[in-house]
Amino acid sequence: MKRLALALLLLECVVVTAQQAPVSPKPAEAPYFTDAFPTEEFAARRAAVMKQIGDAVAIVQGAPEMSAEVAFRQNNQFFYLTGVEVPRAIVVIDGKARKSTLFLGPPRRERYNGPELGPGDEAARITGLDAVVERDSFAAMVTQFGQDGRIVYTPFRAEVRGGGSGGEATAHAKATASDPWDGRPPRELAFQQKLQASATTISIKDLDPIIDAMRFIKSAREIAMMREVARITGEGIMEAMREAAPGRFEYELTAVSEWAFRRYNSQGPGYFPLSATGSNTVYTHYHRGLRKLQDGDIVQFDYAPDYKYYTSDISRVFPANGKFTARQREFYEVYLSLYQALMTSIKPGITITQVANDAGAKMGAILAGFKFTDAKIKEAATKFAAVYQSGKPRSGLGHGLGMEVHDVTIRRDSFQPGELFTIEPAIAIPDESLAMRIEDVILITEKGFENLSAFVPIEIADIEKLMREPGLSDLRAKSPR
């Protein structure tokens, strides 16, 4: 009955109340400052930057205002250090003075958007920064840095705002710069040039590696945030599983997931929805979402929200009609066994090669004992296992996860506690345009690992049981008029 009530609220465009959709309590400063973390979390990050840069200065510019009627979303590097969500803000972290200064323009759209953070002592109190001053005074500070011959660190990589990762942002910036009919330099490069022109004696260095190393190992509060965004992601995926049925479209599965995401106040998608059925499952990042589910289809679903500047990445495979066929069951069962062999080989203090060697040995035993009835499935499983038996798996087993779906990574000799990533090995029968890919969120702990997405059904019996529950469309159809 609870899901029925929620479905009615959604479909009748009624706002879900806090009692129906619990969210994190907002602090008193909520109109002005994020409730993702307390100010001391951001202060600790700035202190860590100071420790790394010594007597140098770190300068980071915030994102510009949005060019459409959509909510402002800060870039990741700036938010990570400040938590401030104001367009065109600039922060200066002075390692020598042990002081952080935020530069803000005067509030411009309070009449339309509601309260905005502006310069002044009250803003310093709210944000936890040492000073929040007029943006126009930034030039004088840069001039002083030049007179002192200071080293200045600033991000070189293209900014990421949401729904993407550094790789996409950097590729876009390069394509724009090399386009003969565009040619605009990356915003970060233009900022560096402005700094250098204003203070010719400063030496400019890349701040990204320092911040990336910090972001790579998650703090206790970040881990709690990642658990929450994984929970919300899982809720959305399970709604998609309930909704699936022959005759519905891929985009309908996306729609019910987005309802779950927005119910918990997510600010948008962490990436575009990968709702793939039938022959579309072979495309790793298929996202058109226009195909109608057919009886006998396999569905591969992968979608997550951008929740308080963090995202997740969970994939599940399930039958469109809610019941695996005998052949689908065989294919899925051997794949799941191999997948779990990989997962259980992960632990702190060992290398990816060691994970592969351990998993490869387990996979060999699984293949030897599995009762195959289909030659193509056996061939696909054997090829899958061979990647790990060779000791040369893909470099990260999957990819880093955090503020971006393909989050920042650093070179490391072995897995470290606090490291968070996904595993997403795919198996396929190419000539049938048939593929499966499960994906889970792995947190390395002191003694092993934690699967943050373990609650999302993965065993055949659990998947089929969940899919017998009515989807939101079913609940709406059964509701009294």
Short description:
The protein is of the alpha+beta class and 481 residues long.
Question: How would you describe what is shown here?
Answer:
With 481 residues, the protein is of the alpha+beta class. It has 2 domains: 31-216, 3-Layer(aba) Sandwich (Creatine Amidinohydrolase, Chain A, domain 1); 220-478, Creatinase/methionine aminopeptidase superfamily (Creatine Amidinohydrolase, Alpha-Beta Complex), CATH 3.90.230. Helix content is 40%, strand content 14%. It contains 16 helices and 15 strands. A 6-stranded mixed sheet has the order 4-3-2-1-5-6, sandwiched between helices. A hairpin with a 4-residue loop joins strand 2 (90-94) and strand 3 (99-104). Helix 10 crosses helix 11 and helix 13 (352-369) packs antiparallel against helix 14 (375-389). The longest helix has 24 residues, at 220-243.
